[in-house]
Amino acid sequence: MAEISRQADAVHRTRTPLSRQRVLSAAVALADEGGVDALSMRKLAQELGVVPMALYKHVAHKNELLDGMIDVLVGEIDPPVADTDWKTAVRLRVLSARRMLLRHPWASGIIEARMKARAAPTPAVLAYLDSMIGIFRAGGFSVGLVHHAMHVMGSRLLGFSQELFDDAPGREPDPDAPPPEEMAARYPHVAELASAVAHDAGSVVGSGCDDQYEFEFALDLTLDGLARLLP
Questions:
Q1: CA separation for the pair 70, 59 (Å, rounded)
Q2: What would the mean pLDDT of 186-193 be, rounded to a whole number?
């Protein structure tokens, strides 16, 4: 009976039209089962009941597959809660991101690796960051203060502790990135922040920002927070 059931599942998978979303969802499921290191295009094709070449119509290569998987995961993060203050809105979304990572323990390593490898975050991550910046701005934060807040939060915005992406000068532009005017229209808060803040090419904190200032800002903020916890 088990063999018949597996054959029926294989037939069902084969008859279900292949799509990019179906490929990415299956890849996430396989990574959940055996870890992302065990994921391969051949194994993914076998899971979907197709030949490996069929996958390349939807994802050109392994890195594009990983980027798409990141976007699937970010899509699991809850949207902003309406009619609440900025602190509650940010906290709820970060905790939702944390729950997402607990469901997918392998995800933080892939997010970190791909953010370092890419010239810019994936579209879903950009949209998420733009939304979070918008929450801060709507809460009364200046652009400069949002800049510092993003350094303090770092990858905690996505549920773990690591810088989200490398914005150091001299990096090769992403050939697949839309033109600047389109980026500004699609991600206005990211564009506003990127054009407003000054960067220090020699920094090691946040890659490109004022190293000492960001360090002291985070330190003072942490100490002030601890002081408020004292009886």
A1: 13
A2: 89
